[in-house]
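Re: your question about Ion-translocating oxidoreductase complex subunit D

S., sorry for the slow reply, the queue was backed up all week. Below is exactly what I fed in.
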Amino acid sequence: MANESLAKAPFLAVGAAPHWHCGRTIHGMMRDYLIALMPAVAMAVYMYGLDALRVMALSCVTAVVIEAVCLKAMERDVTVDDNSALLQGLLLAFLLPASAPWWLVILGSAFTILLGRLVFGGLGANPVCAPLVGWAILSISWKLEMDIDAAMLNTMLVNPLTQLKYFGAQKVADISYTGLLAGQQLGALGSSQVGALLLGGIYLLVRRTVRWQLPAAFFGGVLLISGIFYAIDSSQYASPLFHLLTGSVVFGAFFLVTDSSSSPVGKAAMVIFGLLAGGMVVTIRVYGMYPDGVPFAILLANMTSPLLDMIRPKPFGAR
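Result:
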């Protein structure tokens, strides 16, 4: 009788968690990220003109087309309408200079989708931030084409991190922090829009699309390690505020470190992850060959995410 009653009661069927919908969707999260990037998109077009628009459009279109074709070839549902591929393409574009040739943009966007996402199973399965995979391949394979300073000699802007790397802290001692915040620095599309990216980051925090622990800990790691170097010798190392406002620090804090599939989920783990990534940014800038250490620092921190996810609160009453 009991079995017959259960068979006639479909509402007792057991399903997979979660059983309570919080109202958040992938499409909604991607929309929030894209809205948050709009001020930086407008600022990039204002500063670099149609070259910036060309890089962003080409990267986004390539990412969407590559994902749609591959999903169709694998006989899986084509889900490009969730805007996740569009976001990945735009994030990659912000890691590239406005002078990047068309073929470099297409290759980077294709690597982002193929090697950064689909090879691991698609959205949510990638262990590292997908746009950083495409960026790393381009930076190692085509260093000359990725050289921002060599490609944009006709501009009056300077790259403060290059100045720091090759000419020392005294060369950047007089750089205006207000100017850095306003985007008066040469770099990738996501390196020059500090103020606009901060506005986008605040929007993501207000919408609760990102967890505040990750960007806060990332900024804390940058300030902590750069502060230690600055306290050791202020004539040789740049100030903590300089490191915070230059390169891709702000862009990485709100749009790369917060990648949900490659960052830990526990609060303590998120703090450790952010501090580790932020600390490695300054370490790479000081001892590494790359002026801006943000992309490689976040990639290395992504490798520790599975280990950090083992840090969990003890259940009540557990021994």
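Residues 50-73 form the longest helix (24 residues). The mean pLDDT is 85.

Happy to talk it through on Thursday.
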